[in-house]
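LAB NOTEBOOK - FOLDING QUEUE
OPERATOR: T.R.
BATCH SIZE: 2
PURPOSE: Compare the predicted structure-token outputs for two unrelated chains run back to back under identical settings.
PRIORITY: normal
REVIEWER: second-year student, initials M.K.

ITEM 1
FIELD SEQUENCE / FIELD STRUCTURE:
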Amino acid sequence: MLLGTYQHALDAKNRIIIPSKLMDELSGKLYIYPAANKTCIKLYDEEHWNRYAEIIANLPQEIRYGVQNRIFPNSQQVAPDAQNRVPIPAVMLEKVGIGGKNVITVGMGDYCEIWDPEKYEAAQSAPVSPEIEKVIASMGF
């Protein structure tokens, strides 16, 4: 399970180091996609990416192309190097508003998110809705 929050810097080639605690949980090829709400970049391993690809393939034909056209052209397959560095295309960083050299990587269970630190802090400091608080409390957290 992908858990935790990690802060690091992009290097001169727009690569980030994926922490070893996260890399140990990721398997196969890695895929990145700018979130639809343009808040962050999502990082999926092959198993989870293929689940989404299967969902898309099974959509009704009249909407399948529209969904494919929004997701697949904006996605990239990336390969970590020996130091667990993953390249992030500049255009993808721009799409989600990562303008500085610092980023935050967040484990989200079955995928990771890569955020601009200021945007992440703003999102985390936003009040949690009563519905979400109720669900979290009912789960015993």
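ITEM 2
FIELD SEQUENCE / FIELD STRUCTURE:
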Amino acid sequence: MTFVVTEACISCKYTDCVDVCPVDAFREGPNFLVIDPADCIDCAVCVPECPVNAIYADDDVPADQRDFTALNAELSPLWKPITRTKPALPDADHWATVKVKRAELNREG
């Protein structure tokens, strides 16, 4: 099992989860974080740190978010590790209330 970052993170990119990760499994894109499944040790310490509830164990990812499991695996080798908390995106508080935002995902690394 690994943990997966889902849609709720898009355009927010709160990084509270990054500081607690003991193996530096998070990768940073322009407006989204992913977890590298090869590095994740399934400790779950990141889950309660996410203010928008975007992180799930892969077995618990909601049905409408299951494609994010593959997306985390796809993007993690392309994006650089993030190991320290950074400020959230400027309009993160607005985006935190938006439920449908897949079209906002920026895959550039």
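REVIEWER COMMENT (ITEM 2): The radius of gyration is 12 Å.
FOLLOW-UP: none requested
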